[in-house]
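Reopening closed ticket. The problem is back. First fold of the pair:
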Amino acid sequence: MPGAMRAVNGRSVRRHPLLLVVSLFLALNLAGCGDDGESPNVATVPATFTVSPGVEHVRITNAGSHATLVLYDEGDHKLLGLITDQFGQAVFSYIPDKFITVQSGPGATISTTDGRSLKRGTYTVRDESQVPHAVSAPFHVLGRDDVAPESFYAGQQLNAGFGYIEMRDGVKLSATLRLPPGDGPFPTVIEYSGYGPSNPEAIEPGSQIAQAFGYATVGVNMRGTGCSGGVFDVFNPAQQADGYDVIEAVAHQPWVLNHKVGMVGLSYSGISQLYTASTQPPSLAAITSLSVIEDPWRQQWPGGVYNAGFTKQWLAQRDAESAPGGRSWVQRRIEQGDVICAEHEVLRNQNVDFEQFGRALETYPKDEDDRRLGLLVRKINVPVFLTGAWQDEQTGSLFATMLSHFDQAPVKRFTVFNGHHPDGYGPKITNRWFEFLEFYVAKRIPHMDPLARALVQPVLGAAFGVGTKVPFEADRFTQYTDYDQARAAYEAEDQVRVLFEVGDGAKLKGAGVAKFEKSFPTWPPAATARTWYLDSSGRLADAISSTGGVDRYQHDPGAGPKIYTTGRSGDFQSPTISYDWPPLPDGLGLSYLTDPLPENVVIAGNGGYADLWFASEAADANIEVTLTDVHPDGTEFIVQSGVFRAAHRQIDTALSQPFLIQYTFSAAGFHLLTPGQFLEVKVPFRPFSHPFRAGSRARLIISTPGRDSPLWAYENPSYDGKTISHQVAHTAAMASRIVFPEVDGVDVTGGMPPCPSLRGQICRPYVALNNESAN
């Protein structure tokens, strides 16, 4: 566990990345470190610095350079000391378990055993670098749900072009409004993220498509990004509250149809919709979230293993783009005289280093529940349209585990499929996206204007490399003239649409067309257990092995950083990607294979799991399980994988389902292995759907994490260079197996897909892997 522990005041503690990045040596040498936490008996005067409390944070400005500011709670207990930056600024957002004074701004992490975010309540701040101490008046830090009165939102005016929207704490977010031709009012959608949605020189994809269909669009940058004020933080409650404020301010504008707005966007702006909708803005009509995550922590630590690939790079990019001068369009606005944007740049010096932020936390803190969408989506009370790909190279497929948690959403439309991250904007899905927006934002029967159809379809076709070969669907509700009747017919349809073998449904292989599809009333669909047991001959059998045995493989220190493509994230829109997926060398993993299947087997659900009896020569081990489909002609397609750190023992029984193993990943549930001792380890596969056709064979590969992902890389133990072996048992007493949700009633049409064809599912000639016996 490199860098997991640090010493503070003579004791070992685990680093907490949700806290400010600060330098530890300063913390150990500054006044106030380690005192009794009570306010000092010193003369005081009223403070002249500016206190700006917000949602779970407070900003201090005009305090003077390198002043020592101390935050006190209502009981006059010292919580945290921050030394202001050169501009006299400090931001209190996270509180350690023990008082400490540190430098504010970029740098390092407050070391703590169990930090927390700054909660709703009354506080004061003292400048203790002077005598008498300058003390602020008591101020109130807001909670996420402390909304402003309606008059606050109704009093704002947003004009076409670039401008600002004020939040409840006074922070102004940059926004760009684009109106369609005509007098209005217009159906209106918002795209909200930390990229460049408010950039007046460019437009995000969701807004661009919505504009072509006649919608007004508002692109808004999150606080601390673009020209927006405030300090940037990843998916924190302040961002969620800002989403509420944006919805309400925009919806009150006179050009908004019905004074209700929708939201659009894929990835970052898809994720932000879920956070925003969980705050229940009364003027939100519906959301359309594409290619999203389930939890930021599990995105950084899938299965408890650090994602040193895409997630690490994404966080580093957020650091760079939210830093002062991080975006060229922002600098151009400042150069053109945008005084507000220029003022906001100064506070960027307080932004957190999020690459380090993500790496520092090895176990899941309870406060992270405030950012876990799997819990927050239970509060969403508007219609939801959501899509996702099983092999999403950026965000993965854990989004599916929360689809059963939209308890209050009155209408749900989920489309899931094999494929890539950008596929939510594929022509065959954009059709249904438009349909949903028409019903719930525009409030009209979906009819795609022929001119818009003629304009949008080739643009999307060009973006996905398919030209005009993948047309939009025809309008589906032309038989209706009454909106309520059409909507009732739409809402009578099943909630879940599963697209199978996308990429082999058109003459152009790799295009975003499914060979067949199946709808289900709910996700996960009703299923029975398909169980295969590992045996000593390298087989996956229907029954427990009668002979039994133990196989072993060697830890592969070079596997973690290996990904199978050199392509960039934008390359995944194309019908095919370049990749190199060589077979695993003997000794570095284990392989188990079914006999040719006598009939079709369709797996669909929240993943399933490998139930392994596992032992290691070390006290820590990362495991990857990979499921493949071996066709009769010897072609092998990747289906899905899962990674897991075996020291995480505590299953979350409240969130687990029959085929879904959820772990708490808490510090209390983390226990290192006893070397050489077998224990039962359940390694979850990420959610997926896939048809194994009659004659094919299902294959399980067990190895060190790495090699089987396009962009996710993993940080595995180094064992100080020692050669370490792991073992897997398959005996009557220790019957290792894999368990998947098998669904009935799916009509598997067409023949075996050729290699390559399936989106997100690369392929290669099958090569046997010879298992090494440990007996």
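Second fold of the pair, where the issue appears:
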Amino acid sequence: MSGIPAGCGGKARAAGGRGILGLAGLLLAGCLLVAAGWWLCVPRPPLLDGISFSTPVLDRDGSLLRLSLSEDHKYRLRVHLEDIAPEFIEATLLYEDRLFHEHAGVNPGALLRAAWSTFSGGRRMGASTITMQLARLRYGLKTDTISGKLRQIERALAIERHYSKAEILEAYCNLAPYGGNIEGIGAAARIYFQTSARNLTLTECLSLVGVPQNPTHRNPLKAREQEPEAIAAARARLSRIWLEAHPEDKDNAFFHSLPLTVHSPADLPFAAPHVSVEALRLAHASGSTGKAVRTTIDQRAQKLVERHIASFVSRRARDGLDNACALLVHWPSMEVRALAGSADFHNPRILGQVDGTTARRSPGSTLKPFIYALALDQGLIHPRTLLHDSPRDFKGYSPANADGRFRGPVSAEDALAQSRNIPAIMLANQLRDPDLYDFLQLARAELPAGRDEYGLSLVLGGAEMRPRDLAALYAMLANKGLWQRLVLFPDAPKEADAGQQSRLLSPEASALTLHMLRDRASELRARHLSGAAPRLPVYWKSGTSNGHRDAWAAGVYGDYVLVVWVGNFDGQANPALLGASTAGEILFNIAEAMEIAENLVDTPLAHMHELKLVRAKVCADTGDINTSLCPETTFSWYIPGVSPIADSGIYRSILVDIDTGLRACIEKPGKTRRETWAFWPTDLQRMFRQAGQARKTPPPYAPECFNQENAPDFLSGRAPAIVSPRENIIYHRSVAHPERGKLALSADADADVQTLFWYHGKKFIGRTAPAETLFWVPPGGKGLLRV
């Protein structure tokens, strides 16, 4: 037999062993190289990118108005790590992953223990780190199989490769499940405990930390229902873990087991619903869904406004008044502090989800103050200027007053306070650049039609306005004529036109307009408050649309502007819709409540003494600056160099014959004397007579005045004004029966006029007394009618 040397076999085996070890080393090195290559080249996985979050709508103090669902119908509120209570972070790490800051996403020791316990038939143990749990939650992994667990490990390592520990922990806190459709500590804190993640108490933190391990059975709401034992056991274990780390808290350990008041998603607020809905719409349109939308709403003011609207509707339901809206603006900042778009957002019968503050409705007389403000600025009036409230025709437009009556001579401030239509239209007809239409355009009021469609009917509410536009206009009066945009969402992108403010009125005209609106506030406010004496002045105006479809009240008090609308969104008319007695009631009740709640002071006219205004005596009846002939005087403000100072010509000094009482033409010592007479035009005399207040007319001239050498200057008075026929009106005559086509000729004249002479061209037609009617059959063709 041939043999092999004994030593050779040992050496061969040693050589073979070294080969195996070398191969194993090469394999290990290869694995390490592959692992290192994977580690270096693994793509960056998304963390929170693509995750939709709830959009919180906040009031001006940061309190929650509404929390929306995410796009996948979860309550998931985005929070940053620094906005989470430190106790919650620490308790989470103690309970879930004590070595979180040491491992690279996977804890090998925990994996081996869990595997040994599982395959040896022992208790199933969890071995997932926070990073692994995040991988499962973020990528929807099923980890109850070996392949699923390996995929979870791979994703966890990839996350650790590209993100910091802070980013990983923050993502976990935003995605961890807390029962039902509640995810993330932000939503859990807000829903269960009605607080922010930052303000969670230690007891609240410990009650939430263990929920993600078993959100179905440890849902905090279960404590109120069927599984309090499971929750109590989890809290007890957490308490022990916490006390091991914080033995100094042992004296307060009993707090850890205190019963907690837990809320459900049904308890989430839905305050200022119209604002909340608009905020969510804005977030969606701007692509900022999931980010907090800050509003300027003051929840105390919001609840106050809503309460008074609900109270009004409850009282007036028997009159068919079941809907209203209101807008409260803090005029120094232009912030909307309260907005109730309807009387009840949840009532479909009144279309409650419609936001009435954005709806265009006929504003009635609420635009009249701005006609007077423009007239003040253009030098047409001062507050005591005499205006005529008598029948007038404006190129075929013959308006009347709401009460169907005319009051004759009336001061500008009384005409505005009493909402007389004719004086307002006469002023609007005299406005230069800008007129009312141009003014509203400059104030960004969204009028749906052009100037020609409205004409002078714009004065009486012929256009349609939004309550928001009207609130900005009244705020402008308080802001010294400076128009500014309303602010409801302070962080919203500004509109394309950079003009956020512009001066539309002088500070003087604005202050005088407010002053003119103040006079009637005391009387009506006392009436609305059942005789209670008003403390804070309210500068306001009511409005009622044609056909009684809209009732308005807009006013300034303290630092606030309030606009109230009462009506039906479907435009149904109701005779009870009167601005002063419906919308005015809500306005004054809210003003009174806010005055008491906020201790308001009278600020709108606090700056009046700083303006270029003069307060002086004027004629009580006529508003004339020259008071030398006035029987009674009063005081009025006026703007030096702007307000009119021309004499109205009502009061005149005339010569009267002492013996006959007739009007003399030549002064004769001892036989004539000077007397002051009121020369009221015939249209106003007619108004006085209808009111039972006939005025004496000046005495007629003595016969000798008509001698050629003594003839008085008849041109010193007013020229007659033709009342009928009306200008720019086409009258038709029957060709077959021309005698039936008579025209009624009448005219107003000065107080001392006794006879009017009518002419067609150069042909004399006839004579009448002022206000008498002459019937005349006009010939064919064109001609000029004169009186």
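Update: turned out to be a display glitch only; the data is intact. The chain is about 35% helix and 15% strand. Residues 265 and 511 are 50 Å apart (CA to CA). Please close again.
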